[in-house]
Amino acid sequence: MDSFNKLLIGTSIAMLGGCILAYDYDKHDGQGTGGSGGENAGGTGGGTAATGGNGGEPAGSSSSSGMGGAGGTGGIGECNVSICNDPALANCNAGTCMQLAWAKRFGSLEKRQEVNTVALDKNENIIIAGAYSQDAFSLDAVPLPPGASYQSFLARMHAGGGVEWAQQGPSGEYLAVAADSKGDIIAAGFLKSGETEYSYIEKRSPSNPTATIWNISSSNANQYARITAIDVDASDNIYAVGTTTSGFNIECPAGSGTMVNIVTGMFIIKYNGNGACQWAQTYSTGAGNVKPVAMRLDNASNLWITGQFQNILSNSVVNKDAGAGADMFLAPHNTETGAPLNLYVYGQSGGGSGSIEPAAIEVDETGNVVVVGQVNGQTVFEPGLASGQPAAFVARIRPADGAPNAIVLPGGAQVFEGTRASGVALGAGKLFVSGTFATTMAVDPARPDIVGPVAPGGGASNTAFLAVLDPVVFKLLSFEYFAGHGESFTSRHVHVAVAQSSTILAGGWTKSLDFSNGQGGQNFLMQDPSSTEADIFVARFIAGIP
After folding, report:
1. CB–CB of 487/509 below 8 Å?
2. Within 10 A of 221 (CB to CB), how many other CB atoms are there?
3. Least confident of 236-240, 347-351, 512-516
């Protein structure tokens, strides 16, 4: 195994099985400090770090001298990543492996149903939101009626896995969901009417989910606008980010008579808990396009937004050029005024042809921003990947200057859609990252590459995963995967949400999905042989054995 250093805030790179794995395992030397030899009747002990202490020497010429103490035990090295599926590859990090509480699957036979977003409320009820196509179906015994080709839905499940209610939303899709301090649910996405897509945001009470407390939509005819991510602060103010192809006008602040022109590109809007606009910001994209995908508030009155753009991205402070590629951006804003604070951009490495596509964002307890997603080819997060090679990434970014430290987990096959991190959440002092990989994934320089289970009858399969990281030292602790049983290498997004005692995975999956770790039973989510489109899956995990 060849190794060399790279300048990426203390991150190292190791060659493994033809793949390059960026990691942050300082001082891993495989040896610890041995204990000293035991004392007996005045004997003294000593020893080395590798072998443990020697026995103690007898004490002088005394007739009562005892035997020397036994030698100490040599120390052990730093833990490797625990591969939770294989007891032989579990070690002192095995306590971070999660235990499955339950897993469920919902859907009709021939039409698509998919979770686009998941959240937990203050009581750890599970909120799932997304879309389905045309056919009626049930979540447990709770029915949803037939819908349009794009039909949004919203549902709440309790921690035991039962569906409390499910509600059909407007024609369109929910792309983001959150719960406020009262337990009210905010859902957002787009409302579709003919050829027009309107950005859409609503609030519902969980005690009366059939009616919205308020809803807002905006767009111009025959164009589209979408809200793609939201977050809620401690005062129940709501922050929304989205994109539009034509721009629109919004009165902001509400009641002021002032109209803000949202230009073609990206928009960010702050609403109070009653849906009144507080401020609005806009980014232009020139002839390119921008895809904001996630946002998160920190504890210092900042709002962090990430996404991908091409060509030019401009706000009132800075103007950035992505060149010929598709670059990742990270944009901090002041939550009180909406003022943009900076615009960080991450893209190709040198003359490479790579791209970075973020998917989700979190802020850790020290204020570092954590972004996950997919890199493809040579990028500043990992310049050593092969051209066109995909990998999942977890990037910790220093807020003061945007400097990144990246953990990159390469997939073994150049299947662009297959290998990605698609969710991240902070809880119980750990970072939880969800995603998928195609064929193989390299997760630890001291471990063989993980080989995903093959499809029935042979052939490769997409595989879902859940990884646990230590956010303080920024290292991977454990990794568990779930067999996809022939799932195609599509852009499946496995979402994650975390509370103190719950970790939730949710998304859409066409083939069978095995949460049973090969043991079968009810946690093997079997595909109906007549089904040809994605179904909804939801799984709850609880803390592992300490």
Report:
1. yes
2. 9
3. 347-351
Residue 441: count of CB within 10 angstroms of its CB: 27
In contact, 524 and 509? CB cutoff 8 Å: no
**Distance separating alpha carbons of residues 174 and 319, to the nearest angstrom:** 31
Residue 463 has pLDDT above 80, yes or no: yes
Cβ-count burial 92-131 (b if 16+ within 10 Å, e if not): ebbebbbebbbbbbbbbeebbbbbbbbbbbeebbbbbbbb
**Cα angle, residue 178 at apex, residues 395 and 313 outer, rounded to 5°:** 50
CA distance 55 to 440: 48
What is the rounded CA–CA span in Å between residue 329 and residue 297? 16
Q: Are 389 and 416 in contact (CB under 8 A)?
A: no
Chain segment 29-49, per-residue pLDDT in tens:
333 444 444 433 333 333 333
pLDDT at 421 over 50: yes
Listed residue (292, 178, 277) closest to 232, CA to CA? 178
Q: Above 90 in pLDDT, residue 316?
A: no
431 CB-side CA count, 13 A? 29
Residue whose pair of structure tokens reads 């002839």 in the numeric block:
287
* % of the chain residues with pLDDT over 70: 81
Report residue 68's pLDDT band, with 50, 70 and 90 as the boundaries. low
The 8-class DSSP code of residue 24 comes to -
540 to each of 10, 421, 544, how far by Cα in Å? 34, 19, 12
Alpha helices for 343-453 (secondary structure H): none
Mean pLDDT of the chain: 84
53 and 10 in contact (C-beta within 8 Å)? no
User: What's the Cα-to-Cα distance from 336 to each of 25, 239, 270, 279, 502, rounded to whole Å?
Assistant: 39, 11, 9, 9, 32
At 452, phi and psi to the nearest 5? -65, 150
Per mean pLDDT, which range of 146-150, 230-234, 253-257 is the poorest?
146-150
Domain edges within the chain = 115-346
The fold of 115-346 is Neuraminidase (2.120.10)
33 touches 456 (CB < 8 A): no
Pairing of strands 265-271, 277-284: antiparallel
Tokens (6 digits) for 362:
């979190």
pLDDT given at position 195: 85
Nearest CA to 188 out of 109, 258, 99, 119 is that of 119
For the segment 200-214, the average pLDDT, to the nearest whole number, is 96
